[in-house]
Design a protein that fits this description.
There is one protein chain. This protein is mainly alpha-helical and 209 residues long. It has one domain: Orthogonal Bundle (Hypothetical protein af1432). Helices cover 53% and strands 2% of the residues. It has nine helices and two strands; from the N terminus they run αααααααββαα. Strands 1-2 form a two-stranded antiparallel ribbon. Helix 3 crosses helix 7 and helix 5 runs antiparallel to helix 6. The longest helix is centred in the first third of the chain and has 24 residues.
């Protein structure tokens, strides 16, 4: 018997499968969700690295700053933040907003709200607890493909890839860069280690033969 094609995916993001029984899916459940939505492997690797960075920040804040961080929520949002990116490529639609829509359809509204803010953070206060949205957005801005880099390296790459030489787009990216520097200051003023501690270790150069 020929299998029936999956229903259309709405405006952009993948079609919802079944609603989840929990609003705090485990990492393994998140991976199954990514399987269900056929998220490409390179996006999954990027998201996995973002999740590793986000978890390290969240654990540090919980341990050293007594921050009320929900580690499971942070990890799930980081793993799922690009769930709609592949089907949105080539469209004018916002993959963050579409990802939020997909996750809400799965009954994961709180995660969806964080995912909607992973490109543009929106409202920000330099005081008060560090939010899950701030952690996930910042972690994403520290991972270029699968490599943990500085904010400067990441944003220079974003400008090169997405501005298309248009000044207005570059200004928006640079404004976001400034905001992320404020988020970075907020986070690391509460931790015993600095931003460089998150960077990927450099691989030793191979000896020439």
């Amino acid at each position: 018997m020929v299998s029936k094609p999956r229903p259309p995916a709405g405006r952009c993001g993948p079609a919802a499968t079944r609603r989840r029984r929990t609003t705090r899916p485990s990492d393994s459940t998140c991976r199954r969700i990514l399987d269900d939505h056929r998220v490409p492997e390179h996006i999954r690797r990027h998201s996995g690295r973002v999740a590793s960075v986000a978890r390290r920040i969240a654990r540090g804040l919980a341990e050293h700053a007594a921050e009320p961080v929900d580690l499971t929520l942070v990890s799930a949002a980081a793993l799922l933040h690009d769930i709609a990116k592949a089907p949105c490529i080539g469209s004018r639609l916002d993959h963050a907003r579409e990802g939020g829509r997909v996750l809400r359809a799965l009954g994961l509204a709180e995660i969806g709200e964080i995912v909607e803010r992973h490109v543009t953070l929106g409202a920000f206060s330099a005081t008060g607890p560090v939010s899950a949205a701030e952690i996930v957005n910042y972690a994403d801005k520290r991972v270029r493909y699968e490599e943990v880099v500085s904010l400067g390296e990441r944003f220079e790459d974003l400008i090169a890839r997405y501005s298309g030489g248009k000044a207005a787009i570059e200004r928006r990216i640079r404004a976001n860069w400034v905001l992320m520097e404020e988020v970075e200051t907020k986070i690391f003023s509460r931790l015993p280690f600095g931003p460089d501690a998150l960077r990927s270790p450099r691989r030793p150069a191979r000896a020439r033969r």
